[in-house]
């Protein structure tokens, strides 16, 4: 392959720019050309496409967000949209496509693959909820952002002897809550993959107080319920005066960590290697520190993401 395209789609994640940069620089190194597609699949269908040079990706590795912009474009689920996208790529002479995004974006790449167009999906989402990879681009940055906020909230919780519920992102996955719960020394972690018993949560708070704990931090994954709802349930059992903090979109922004930049660079370069050899229909992952490629159809049809639930057990053992 001589000419490929790259787009970012779905929720933005820190490190997407580093991934685009790697795709462009590695392609140029291999004597290939890269076309950037603005606004994800929406821009692909509309033909919002331009050639990217080495300089277009200069001063980008450290920036959060995505300079190619992202969009939600549900119409891409229709065959009409997919065929139009392929037609646009043919018009520009693009022979393969790198799709950087979450599981929804992978569905777009899956659809193009089924039409015979070579795609490579790179996992880009703070949620870490993609099958076939231990980590996604953006996850490490997001958990460090959440951790900074949790450390600050802990100061207040301790000073006022308070119970805080901190709602974190993650869609239906508990990874962000698990990692930040362990890293912040949270008393309890509530995630969708594990049930919870509100009377037991209340009991744990009381026990902690009796042992002389000055604060209770509960990290709640958004996939369970929202923080205010959870606090109301707790306050209905006892008057804990629970405070709620919903971290929201601060979790998505910011300069990527070293780990996210390195991961994004490795994924970007690997995608180019594969497309250069004419290999598509793939998505990349890092498994036990090795960058590997999976069949994208098999990944979406048969694989499931599961967070590291050992962290849940660990937290129960060491947090009280
Ligand atoms: P995140 O989880 O971080 O928000 P995401 O990639 O899962 O990222 P989505 O909004 O679910 O975000 O998907 C991004 C885009 O992928 C959609 O707006 C749409 O253009 C495309 N897409 C999603 N589902 C499909 C599908 N079933 N078929 C084709 N394209 C799809």
TrEMBL record:
User: Where is the protein situated, by its record's location annotation?
Assistant: Cytoplasm
- What is known about what this protein does? Catalyzes the phosphorylation of D-fructose 6-phosphate to fructose 1,6-bisphosphate by ATP, the first committing step of glycolysis.
Q: Where does Mg(2+) bind?
A: 103
- Which PANTHER family does this one have? ATP-DEPENDENT 6-PHOSPHOFRUCTOKINASE, PHOSPHOFRUCTOKINASE
Keywords assigned: Allosteric enzyme, ATP-binding, Cytoplasm, Glycolysis, Kinase, Magnesium, Metal-binding, Nucleotide-binding, Transferase
Residue span of the signal peptide, if any?
Answer: none
Where ADP binds, per the record, is at: 21-25, 154, 185-187, 211, 213-215
Involved pathway(s): Carbohydrate degradation; glycolysis; D-glyceraldehyde 3-phosphate and glycerone phosphate from D-glucose: step 3/4
Q: Which cofactor does it need?
A: Mg(2+)
What are the binding positions for substrate in this chain? Answer: 125-127, 162, 169-171, 222, 243, 249-252
Give me the reactions it catalyses. Answer: beta-D-fructose 6-phosphate + ATP = beta-D-fructose 1,6-bisphosphate + ADP + H(+)
Keyword Nucleotide-binding included in the entry's annotation: yes
Q: Which organism was this protein described from?
A: Alkalibacterium iburiense
| Residue ranges annotated for the Phosphofructokinase domain, each copy included | 3-275
The protein here is known as ATP-dependent 6-phosphofructokinase
Q: Which residues form the active site?
A: 127 (proton acceptor)
């Amino acid at each position: 392959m001589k000419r490929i395209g790259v787009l970012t789609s779905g929720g933005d994640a820190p490190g997407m720019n580093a991934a685009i940069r790697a795709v462009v620089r590695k392609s140029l190194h291999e004597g290939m050309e890269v076309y950037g597609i603005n606004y994800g699949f929406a821009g692909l269908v509309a033909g919002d496409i331009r050639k990217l040079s080495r300089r277009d990706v200069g001063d980008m590795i450290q920036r959060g967000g995505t300079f190619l912009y992202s969009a939600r474009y549900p119409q891409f689920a229709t065959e009409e949209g997919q065929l139009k996208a392929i037609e646009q790529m043919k018009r520009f002479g693009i022979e393969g496509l790198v799709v950087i995004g979450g599981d929804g974006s992978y569905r777009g790449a899956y659809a193009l693959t089924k039409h015979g167009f070579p795609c490579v999906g790179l996992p880009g989402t703070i949620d870490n909820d993609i099958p076939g990879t231990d980590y996604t681009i953006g996850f490490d940055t997001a958990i460090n952002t959440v951790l900074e906020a949790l450390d600050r909230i802990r100061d207040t919780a301790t000073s006022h002897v308070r119970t805080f519920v901190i709602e974190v992102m993650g869609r239906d996955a508990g990874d962000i809550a698990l990692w930040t719960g362990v890293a912040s020394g949270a008393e309890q972690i509530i995630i969708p993959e594990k049930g919870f018993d509100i009377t037991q949560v209340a009991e744990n708070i009381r026990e902690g107080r009796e042992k002389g704990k000055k604060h209770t931090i509960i990290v709640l994954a958004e996939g369970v319920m929202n923080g205010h709802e959870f606090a109301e349930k707790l306050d209905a059992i006892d008057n804990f005066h629970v405070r709620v903090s919903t971290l929201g979109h601060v979790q998505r922004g910011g300069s990527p960590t070293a780990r996210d930049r390195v991961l994004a660079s490795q994924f970007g370069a690997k995608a180019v290697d594969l497309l250069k050899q004419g290999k598509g229909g793939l998505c990349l992952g890092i498994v036990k520190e090795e960058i590997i490629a999976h069949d994208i159809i098999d990944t979406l049809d048969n694989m499931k993401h599961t967070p590291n639930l050992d962290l849940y057990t660990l937290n129960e053992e060491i947090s009280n």
